[in-house]
Amino acid sequence: MERHTRQRAAIRGAIASVNRPLSVAEVLVAAQQQVPGISLATVYRNLRILADEGELVQVKLPGESPRYELSGREHHHHFQCRYCQRAFEVYGCPGTLAHLVPPGFLVEDHEVILYGQCSGCIQVPLESRPRPQAGSIIPPGNNLQPSRS
Ligand SMILES: [Zn+2]
Ligand SMILES: [Zn+2]
């Protein structure tokens, strides 16, 4: 029981400590700092429980594995880096965009996802930047430097 509580706290804490939605793989890396040896299956299971309990919400990006963020956040949107695949929160909103639909239509909701280069990736020259597979994780900072082999 004690162990389970600690695992869940580490997983929730991993998401709470960054201001962006995390993939399961990113949660695993962060949670392992608190609970060495925590497994992917444990992370999956606890993310599902935390989502069922309403603590976390899934962020769905087209063609991507789900990301998780704390629930109850203000209306916001997301930015996804095309190079490291990380998702970020974007504050601000273009509004209802009701003027985009034909007359007689009613807009009830919207989703806005911006794509581009995050502040970490933009510092690496384009030609030496890795082209990661969809869903792969490349940590920010020095690890972005291409390895000379
Ligand atoms: Zn990036
Ligand atoms: Zn909006």
Overview of the molecule:
With 149 residues, the protein is of the alpha+beta class. It has one domain: Arc Repressor Mutant, subunit A. The protein is 26% helix and 15% strand. It has helices at 2-16, 24-34, 40-52; strands spanning 22-23, 56-59, 67-70, 77-81, 87-90, 113-116. It has a 3-stranded antiparallel sheet with strand order 1-3-2. Helix 2 (24-34) crosses helix 3 (40-52). It is flat. The protein binds zinc ion (ZN) (2 copies). One zinc ion (ZN) binds at residues 75, 77, 93, 110, 112. One zinc ion (ZN) binds at residues 81, 83-84, 86, 118, 120-121.
CATH fold assignment: Arc Repressor Mutant, subunit A
Counting helices, strands and paired strands, the structural category is alpha+beta
Which whole number gives the mean pLDDT?
Answer: 88
Q: Share of helix among residues?
A: 25-40%
Distance between the termini: 47 Å
CATH class: Mainly Alpha
Cα radius of gyration in angstroms: 18 Å
Uncertain parts:
138-149
Number of strands: 6
Biggest sheet layout: 3 strands, antiparallel
Total domain units: 1
- Report the portion of residues in β strands: 15-25%
Name the bound molecules. Answer: zinc ion
CATH homologous superfamily heading: Winged helix-like DNA-binding domain superfamily/Winged helix DNA-binding domain
